[in-house]
Each structure stands twice: as C-alpha cells, then as structure tokens.
Amino acid sequence: MWKNIDRFNIYDQVKPVRNDKLKNFVTRKLGHHNKIIIEKSPPNLFRPELVKYVLPEAKILFIERNEQACLQSNLKATRKNNGFIPSKFLYKSQPDKYNLEQKQYPRNTLLLHEQIHPTQVFNFTKYSFLKFNHWRKGHYPFGPKLCGYDKIMRERGPEYYHTKCIDLIKKYKKTYTELFDDIYYIELEKLVENSNNYIDDMLGFIKKYSTET
Question: Span 92-109, mean pLDDT?
C-alpha cells in the first residue's frame, strides 16, 4: 500500500509522519462498501506513528516469532543474497485504474513502460542502482532496511544488523502499544501448533467475520 505514494524510498525507517497523499489514497480505498484494508508489510513495524495517522482505527495483529529462530532465518536469507528480487520493486498491478465495484479487477503486469511514468525515470534509475550496488557488494540485508543499512552491514556484519533490527522492533512494539487500543499478540510457534483455535481467536478479535466464515 505504501508504495503507491513512496515507491523509491531506499530506507524503510524514513517516512513522513503526516502524509496526506497516503491518507487520501487509503480513504478512497475504504470508500468501497464492505472494504477492509489488510496491510502486512514488515516495514510497518518501524512506522507506528504513520500507521496511526493514516489508519487511526486500525486493529493491530502482532505475530511474533522466537528471537533466535527469527535471527537465524534472516541471517540465512541474507547470506544467500535473497534480499534482492528486482520484480518486487515494480508494481504487479494497477488497482487505481480499475473500478472494483463494477467488477473491473486489477491486471497483473511487470511491463516497465506501464509501471514507470516518465517523470519517475530518474528516481527509479537511482533507486535501482543503489539497491543493486549494495546487493552486489553483499551489503543488502534480507527483511527491513534500516537507515544506513549498507554502512552497518559493511562495518558490523549481518549478525549485528539483524540483532539490531530485533532490538528496534521491541522499541516500536512498545510505541504501538501506546498508540493503539486494539492489539492482539500471538506467538508464531503457538499459531503453528494449534492454528484452528488461534484463527478463531483472531477472527473474533477482528470482529468482522464469523468463525463459520
């Protein structure tokens, strides 16, 4: 959702708190009857104030994995250079050009000329070059991109970087708790072990769907 407004921001932490364009975009999306926005981008962990401003009535479903398991998984992905997938930096559909109420659904596309407006060519080129250069040098981490991630990766290494990410998530989790009343916490391991019970609980938390649905 955020990429509809800020496509070429290289760092996930850099986001203006008051983004009226983004809020207007979300308001249009919510204008459809019975429409619910479900946003699951990992960088949201670092943007509690922005999420609160854009979606003040949001319900936060916070699924946490064991720290060591999360650390080792991210380290493995980073060392395999799995953090850079060029197609992910392009839109895969153009939802603004379609009317969902009239059953005109988005068309998936990766055609560059349909993704990049002429006014965006410079920013897209700069963004792509930086990403590719960091990836080529082994300084592109898997997962969220902290401010100055390339320097941290170069000077301190991936283990320090991902440990720092986990520590920051704890900080932002506290901020979410302070900003939002409706937060549901669940451990990933428990969800995997007993998914049926927890799915019912999560649906009850959302209060939109029945357990039969």
Answer: 53
